[in-house]
Amino acid sequence: MDRSRYRRLFRLLGGRRERLAAEIDEEMRLHLELRIAQLVERGFTPEAARMEALRRFGDLEQARRELTRIERRKEASVRVREWLDGLLHDVRFAARSFVRSPGFTAVVVVTLALGIGANAAVFGIVDRLLLRGPEHVREPDQLVRLYLTHRDPMGEPFTGSWLGYVSYLAIGDGSRTLEGVAAYSRSEGTLDRRAEAAPIDVGHVTADFFPLLGVRPHLGRFFGPDEDRPGAAERVVVLSHGLWQGRFGADPDILGRTLVLGDETWTIIGVAPSGFTGVELLRVDVWTPMSLRGATASPDWTTTWDAQWLQLVGRVRPGTTREQVAEDLTAVHRAAYTDTDQAVAEGRMSGAPLRFDASARETGEVGVSRWLIGVSAIVLLIACANVANLLLARIVSRRREVAVRLALGIGRRRLVRLLLAESALLAAAGGLAGLALAYWGGRLMRVTLLPHVAWSGSPVDGRVLAFTAIAALGTALLIGIGPAVQATRPDLTGALRAGAREGGGRRSRLRTSLTVAQVSLSVVLLIGAALFVRSLWNVRTLALGLEPERVLAVSLSFPTLAGASDGERELERARRRAFHDVALQRVRALPGVERASVAVGTPFRMRFGVRLRVTGWDSIPRLPGGGPFIAAVTSDYFQTVGTPLLRGRAFTPADHASSERVAVVNETMARTLWPDRDALGQCLFIQTADCSRVVGVVADARRAALREEPAMQYFIPAGQESGIGGSLLLVRPRGEPASLVSVLRRELLALEPSLIYVDVWHMQEAILEQTRPWRLGATMFVVFGLLALLVAAVGLYSVIAYGVAQRTHELGVRLALGANRGDIARLVVGHAVASTVVGLAIGIALALVGGRFLVALLFETSPRHPAAFVGVSIVLVLVSVAASLLPARRATRLDPAIALRAE
Amino acid sequence: MPTPLPLVKGTLDILILKTLSWGPMHGFEIVDWLERRSDGVLGVDDSALYQALHRMDARGLIAAEWGITGNNRRARFYRLTIIGRQRLRAEASTWRRYSAAVTDVLGATSRTI
Fold this sequence. Notes:
Mean pLDDT of chain A: 84
Helix content of chain A: 40-55%
Low-confidence stretches of chain B: none
Shape of chain B: globular
Structural class of chain A: alpha+beta
Shape of chain A: globular
Low-confidence stretches of chain A: 499-506
Distance between the termini of chain A: 30 Å
Strand content of chain A: 5-15%
Largest sheet of chain B: 3 strands, antiparallel
Strand order of the largest sheet of chain B: 2-5-4
Number of strands of chain A: 22
Number of helices of chain B: 4
Strand content of chain B: 15-25%
Distance between the termini of chain B: 34 Å
Structural class of chain B: alpha+beta
Largest interface: A-B, 23 and 20 residues
Helix content of chain B: 55-70%
Oligomer: heterodimer
């Protein structure tokens, strides 16, 4: 917009004001003149008459000011009323014109709906993950998760939120910067027994958890300090709203009734409000007192510094900084610590927002959802650019109409208003359709991409509605500004004479740059998509050293041995160990089972470290991945989980408790301990002075995470272990793992009457959980990238097609002068490819710059992965050629005679 | 010429409406008419009159438009609108009842003392 246009606007406004003042002056002047004349008639001298007239009038200046004020206000209200009337008229007019061109309208509304809908859906997700925090929590911004940072055995700082009850007590007593602190932990439990049993998620919390969060029960009450006293806690339970509705049919008389958790009976005292999940977004089915959980962990759990299995959340006093909290908590921690670990004694404590995970990092989902905001915003920008382009094309083809209107005296401002009314109408329609998309898209995203989050409420709530309204308003402005500027160009009136033929030049430069912008933004998204897909591919094809997709893990739940004497307990333990062998034989005999094994210490579930000595080493070297880790396994273990044997032999049924002590080590261990010797035949002294001879070497396998440092790991035959326990049954099914789950459960329950519950889980679940950020990123980038590509392709097509239509005359002349039809086609396609290449260059530059920020989210993929850039470039050029083929065909089929007559 | 009485608050509007019920007039004509009609008893502050005129114009009780006077001068003429006429009728009746009541009360007071 050039400056002369602004000046014109001000002159217009200024003129109105001057006219008002002049009229008021004129009215008063007339009055005074008539009064003077009247007084002179009555015998006053002219001078006296003038004085008298002024005296009678009163304060002239004040009157002038007051009159001006009244007139201005009146003028303003008249203008507003006229403006609104006019706007209504314009909207009706715009609606009629859109109804007349349904194809154009549909393309625009669908484009905007995709853009706005994508943003609304993403906002719904991000709102929960990032902005709003957990439901029903009063002022979640004041809550902090507490962390302890200390040096790990390698001397590296390690931050974690796993703390002990001692820390909870110490901070509750000693902290000055926290209003309060509460402890919580989660575990998996079973509701009811045996065949009816269902797995549930149990939240264990201290009694002050609920008041600290500021949550109120939906029904009944939460438990108090008396019911959560260590050593004297009561079996009371608060149901989640979901469990109450699902399992108990929302029974209003539920309070006081009992339910069976594990193998014990608990009394229901309350129901939590709908959607309440504590301070995390994970599902919790029942809430129980922390003290009962603690008692099952270890007898001295309230005093020991060894048990670090609970997490703390605190409410920061208003006006306290994060640094003050850290300083205060560190002082409390150091004063309270009484154990011997120097690293922990020198540890530092800190608080971080709730969205941080147990290792004080933002969760992968949070990182990806941040990107989603940007990505969906880009999609909307592309959609806006496209629609602006279409509207520009429309305004240019309506130049005659516009010029006639201007000539008939319609003000430019009215014209702008008409154009803005059009874009507002389109944006509103797009926003409404976008809401429908956001509803379905939001539901889909919740279920497929973030199923572990306990979602509640509709994907489209009040906040999403408000966001959509704002997005639609912004869209209206973005798409309306171009045509409005175009229409107010002073030279437009020239169109009356020129006709629509001369549409080239500056106008199409704006449209071409919009196309280039669309292409470059699509390139950025597509490169992002390619990088994420590549990451996901790398994750999928990662050599894990095991095949979790082929392994089912079975854990058997027996009643606790509380109340039994030591002798009885020992006897029962032995019987249970023996039962695992019976179970193993039974499972191996099942037709759907290829192999099975029993293991103490399993990937993704449990790992153990015990005292180990090796000849030639004063102490076992420490590796960044921790360890060495030990597992006791039966024969067939390596085949069952799919870990390749590299050298030597695996265990056979001949390796058992009383046979020769043997061991299998992993590759890292073999290489680390015996770098220049063969590991086979070496001795491991595991907790004892007896040699366990190394008989085999297996490949490294993942222990807990997709990304982890190598660690030493060794295996001994089941039965030769001591001091470690907790057997799991590992099963490798012949066919589909899911089909075997219920069979295993039924067979094992039938085998042993004292079993409470048989839990069967697919080892792949642990992997899926960990690949979620990449799947989330890959899915969203691909979906949005393709969306962007589609919109950009439509935009490109419309620009090219329109350009051909505009240049019909010119092309006709060229044809008439003997131009080759191939030249014409090349001209059209070349124009499209040229805009695309410019867009590509810009997009690639942007992607190179932006890629640096994506590194943390990619999996072993460089953000400059050449294949991604090359692939996207090829796709884009192909799409641009495809988009211009149809217009090019039309151009070559022109009949010069008709083309020359056009216009 | 008697000393004009100051106007009772709120009466200016109704007086203007009444004046204009005779036909469109410009500002000075209204003042002149009021002064003549009341034999100079009602003193209208000119400044207040114009403010009242503009205010009533903004409210739609009267309408202003530029016209030519008998002496061929451009002047802003005011005329009663339909709303203004209705308002005049209502206010006049209220005013009559009010002033009768006041007169009545004042009359009663003089008898008892």
